[in-house]
């Protein structure tokens, strides 16, 4: 006798729960503002924010740029800083993990810089670069480089010592062992760094823009505060969240594509 | 493939080797105690002993991965000062390069020595064929069974054309049936392309099946050499052969006394 395929169906009510919770959240929020339980100088309603969202696609004022320009500026800064962090951090971490000299020279300086929050660099960065794009790239870079170095370093350190010994019995040089064995061994850890660094870069970017910027999503929030426009502050916050999610999805997609070629 | 052989010529000499490890700066662990052993060219020597008898350490000293505290190892009359491609190693865990295919693993040694691509592909293909892995050249280690993985390990060691093969409990992780089969294969491979082999195991059957000579180690540290057995049974051997069983009995009895 054949068994019947048993399909476990999630009850409709359970599947509707997330929708309900979101609706309830926005409904309550809208009501709180409409009934003026919270004064409108402190909180804007979802509908007001959405209206501002539509307007900001074509209206430059009062903050001086279109919403798309703010987003584009932030994304550009984040990616430039991110790529620089990868380009410098990963080779540095890998080399520190294998070459004693590089570790001896690089480690103390890295350990000194590591505990300083990237935001603490902002005043210096304003002296050096002003409030243009390069200063923010620097802040993002110095924050993003930390997980790149640490993960690459640890990845090399975790190389199976027997594999290294075996390569030595084959007469391999230090450089060959580094290239042929340590780097491939470290790759999974390095890929982990890609995700961690990106999240960090996006967070640091917003912090940097809050303090030193003339354009970007963080700047939009600052302007909202200065002009006492809660809808603008909230629009900035929501756009930061949404853009972050979209970037995460894109990176995830590329990581999967990349790893598919390497996975064993 | 292999040039002329000189049966009877001494290949490896272990001269009075003692090894003491110093752990954490204080504790001394005496692992090997005055080991002297000569291995002839193309001889198959099995070092047989229970766990913790220092047999792997002896192999690692011959490989040049450890230095003896006292004594020395001579290979063709020259003192061993470090690892080199003249000694091929096969490890207990498979220790394959997980990111390389079977071909990539086997050609690694020649590649590191700068052998041109065509040539090393040819060498690798030859040994992949020797260990019976034709058709699996482009498979990754995770796609292979335990026995196949260790075949890759053997082919990889052979691909350097070493004069000496050092195998450290290579089949310890295999199930009993695969193990029997791999022992058969090892004997076949060795008969096809003779090398001087030092094979470490804790399995008496495996030792008798493979060895020209069995060197037993006593069952506790410091590791000392115990009895040496010459196994002159005809090959291929049978596990159920009377002479096989008689020797097995003899070794079992003797080793029980030393434990």
Task: Give structural notes.
The complex is a heterodimer of chains A (264) and B (259). Chain A is mainly alpha-helical and 264 residues long. Chain A is 77% helix and 0% strand. The radius of gyration of chain A is 24 Å and the shape is flat. The two termini of chain A are 40 Å apart. The model of chain A has no long low-confidence stretch (mean pLDDT 86). Chain B folds into 2 domains: 1-86 and 164-173 and 182-259, Rossmann fold, CATH 3.40.50.300; 92-161, no CATH class. Chain B is 34% helix and 26% strand. Chain B is built from 8 helices and 10 strands. In chain B, the strands form 2 sheets. Chain B has a 6-stranded mixed sheet with strand order 6-7-8-3-9-10, sandwiched between helices. A 4-stranded antiparallel sheet of chain B has the order 2-1-4-5, with helices on one face. Mean pLDDT of chain B is 87; it is low at 1-6. Chains A and B meet through helix 7 and helix 8 of A and strand 6 and helix 3 of B.
What's the topology here?
The complex is a heterodimer of chains A (264) and B (259).
Chain A: H1 12-34, H2 46-55, H3 67-98, H4 100-113, H5 122-129, H6 133-157, H7 161-169, H8 174-211, H9 217-226, H10 230-262
Helix pairs in contact in A: 2-10, 3-4, 3-6, 3-8, 3-9, 5-6, 6-8, 8-9, 8-10, 9-10
Chain B: E1 10-23, E2 27-40, E3 44-48, H1 55-63, E4 70-75, E5 78-79, E6 87-90, H2 102-106, H3 108-112, H4 117-130, H5 146-158, E7 164-168, H6 176-192, E8 196-201, H7 204-210, E9 213-217, E10 225-230, H8 242-258
Parallel strand pairs in B: 3-8, 3-9, 6-7, 7-8
Antiparallel strand pairs in B: 1-2, 1-4, 4-5, 9-10
